[in-house]
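Researcher: Sequence of RNA polymerase sigma factor follows. Predict its structure.
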Amino acid sequence: MASREEAFREIYEANSKKIFHLCYGYTGDDDAANDLLQETFLKVWQNLHKFRNQALVSTWIYRIAVNTCLTYLRSEKRQAKDELTPQIAENKREEFSEKNEQVALLYKCISKLEESERIIITLVLDEVPYPEIADVSGISEGNLRVKIYRIKQKLTELYNQHERL
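Model: Prediction complete. Tokens:
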């Protein structure tokens, strides 16, 4: 039993920051991201015995996190999130330094992307290797590179629109 707990602790320590970033990319809210992080790792704990090493453990966890986030977004009223996001970003702005303000704006722009694009760009920002991102997103590595290029273009446009305001 102790070895299962130790394995879980190692998995958590190795993956929790990246999973938090993924969840934050979906929600744009620290509290919701923390809740989704906890829910993801609760599912990891409950299903650890089912993991068969057919993929990297991090890929398996990303899939759990993505499904958890998508379920959360479906259960949340989309309009309520859209109304809260600017308010949350405004409150956060007061707490952030200029650099952190730019990071907050980046995540605000990411939250405006399509769900599949949010998954991909968040994994890129967390420096997940392309083959693993391709696995998580279910597309070929070649197609992934094209998608990443287009997502970066879209993000640059969104970011520049905010900068002009």
